[in-house]
Every structure is written in structure tokens, then in C-alpha cells.
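Please, structure for the following, as C-alpha cells.
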Amino acid sequence: MAGLALSRPTTSGSITMAQEQETIIVTSRTVACDGGGGALGHPKTFYTIGEAGSVVCGYCGQRFELDPDAPTDHGH
């Protein structure tokens, strides 16, 4: 199809989006993100915060940071 250009999201776009959003401080190592836009959001995804103490959503770039004073999370 001549003249049809498809664009894909780039990593730099996700990084920029993450920098524009506020970090959400959480008290559990397990977090979920749905983009916060209702029907305009993205599929709900679950993440586990590792030793780094934070995780970034792969869809929207939202950053979640574990509160350093959070109680030990043993999971289920």
C-alpha cells in the first residue's frame, strides 16, 4: 500500500510519559495498573516490585515505588 505509513510506539515515548506522571507510592510489593482511563485505559497488568524498590508499567509508563516504611509483604 503505497503512501501508508504505520507508526509504532517507541521506548523514548514511554520514558517521556513516565517522567510526566507522578510516582505512586505503595505499601505492597504487588501492584496493578489499568491506565486509569476506564475504557480508554489499557488491560489490567500486575507487577511485583523487586529489590530495586520500584516498577514501571509497560503499557503507560506509570511508576510505582515501594514505601521504605512499608511492612514486610509476604505475598500469597
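The first helix runs from residue 11 to 20. Strands lie at 24-26, 30-33, 45-48, 54-56, 63-66.
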